[in-house]
Amino acid sequence: MPIWYGGDYNPEQWPEEVWEEDVRLMQRGGITLATVGVFSWARLEPREGEFDFGWLDRVLDGLHAGGIRVDLATATASPPPWLPHAYPEVLPVTADGVTLSVGSRQHYCPSSPVYRRLAARLVSAIAERYGSHPALELWHVNNEYGCHVAHCYCDVSAKAFREWLRARYGSVERLNEAWGTAFWSQQYGDFAEVYPPRAMPTFTNPGHALDFDRFSSDELLDCYRMERDILREVTPEVPITTNFMGFFKGVDYWRWAKEVDVVSDDSYPDPADPDSPAYGAMVRDLVRSLGAGRPWILMEQASSAVNWRRRNAAKPAGMNRGLSYQALGRGADGILYFQWRQSVAGAEKFHSGMLPHSGTETKTWREIEQLGGELAGLDRVRGTRVPADVAILFDWDSWWSIEQEATPGEIPYVQHAFAWYRELHRRTVTADFVSPSADLSRYRAVIVPSLFVATAEALAGLDAYVRAGGRLLVTFQTGITDQDAHITEGGYLGVLAETLGVRVEEFAPPAGPDLAGTGGAPVPGTAFGGELIRGGTGTLWSEYLHSEGADVLASFEGGELDGWPAITANRRGEGRAWYVATLPDPDAMAALLDAVLSDAGVSPVLAQPVEGVEAVRRGDSVFLVNHTPAEARVTLNGAEHVLEPRGVAVLDIDGL
Ligand code: GLA
Question: What global pTM score does this model have?
Fold first, then answer.
């Protein structure tokens, strides 16, 4: 089987004469998989209960005749206008009480029984019609669940939220306890009194807000499961996916990933952002990890510019290829785009396509064709795994909670994780992401950036990992609350305080700068230093930290915190645990990570990393991607390899 190559194909936007040319050009471009029908509900069911499949039959037959496999969508992401017209209660409502209208997409309340009933009927009809079509390779459920409407606050959602809470807590007394409703006179007498956290005079109860995030993710997941179960019943042998969106806050992908046969992801790194290669790599590593290391599909990327940024940079020549190889190197078995043919009408007509407005005499098409040809020769990569010695702990409960209102200081959760990831990426150390309940035993080192919400079991698991010989690096704002958003019993960090040999007395976040920049005059960071690191600068955080047995590797310097520990290390059982009370500048972080990784026995892919060159091992190959516009020279196992500007190489290391 080849590496899948293709994209979203929306033939309903074109007259039928164009379809033949589409198949011909797909063949020329090396396309093997087309995602069809993502936004076809209105064409498939033009009036309630009246289905029109004739046109889709012809599309699928044409693709099949051309040797192109189909990832067939269930078309439920954009209800046709007749639906909300007949059943206005399906329209989603924002926290401010605004009803979202028809005329774009995703205008449905995930809890709506009407939406679910009509979506189920459509999915059944599609499954019955195409379940045995010879072109069918994969089912594609809905599209980017939650992308535009991750939360709905309408009355239907309110009812569903109450049911979800009843199932979670059993009694309203238990809910009161969990949410701490003794505060501000919030005690509920009955589930009926509970509402979604709609616009309020001031801060929402943190437990209420956290449970609404969990509920909203679960409601969308129920929509997915409903469709998945219909498809599975009709075609038990056909794999099922729904396209994820990398670090997307709206839904907890750890819960979702268990429910799909193949993880797939949509990814649009900004060509104008110098951090995009590293951030793109982080997303790929998350996506691979969601599927427990199984190969995944890059379901959507842009061949060049998107249309939804303030200014939409075109991809310079070679970037699309580089980011595609990055995905392959990090475990993808498919490289697909949004979309095949660039639209001439509608809200996405300025979004690039594989086949641009300007046709085939274009840099974009030439690159599409070139990549198609290259992928056809990379079968050996398919199905192989990406080894990783390091894990980064990532948790949606923590993300939701740490970014709530009324916290000690703003911490952008993903950017914080990225700060650590970027340094690993720079030194060509491959990382997996793990959930708080993961088995960590196969990792040499684990990094825990601000695990704000942690159950006692999760903290005990981290402690057990260290005692058994693991190397653990924990940052500030970890183990602050339990799963009910209550301050951790026994003090911040819980049992991890013993693991780390420290005690957090009080938070003292500096005025700035934060990771997003201050938007004003830069505020100097907090100085720290010690034997390991001299002249370090910390941003984002500082605190009053005591060592209770840990070695102090660096202390804050100057100001109120002068002399208080900033970075510590502690032996525990067979392992060692570091605590970092600030976000070190890149040089300081580099020094710290070098110490941790060498203590853990982690080897990078390249002994001498080259700035701007990514290296990752997959199976018996090493993927090199030069993300810079200049030639680069890389030494691997004693041999020098020259990479063209934005060039790539896949080196066989079999036997080494
Ligand atoms: C998402 C959607 C696509 C398209 C692209 C544009 O990924 O799934 O339908 O809107 O964004 O970038």
Answer: 0.97
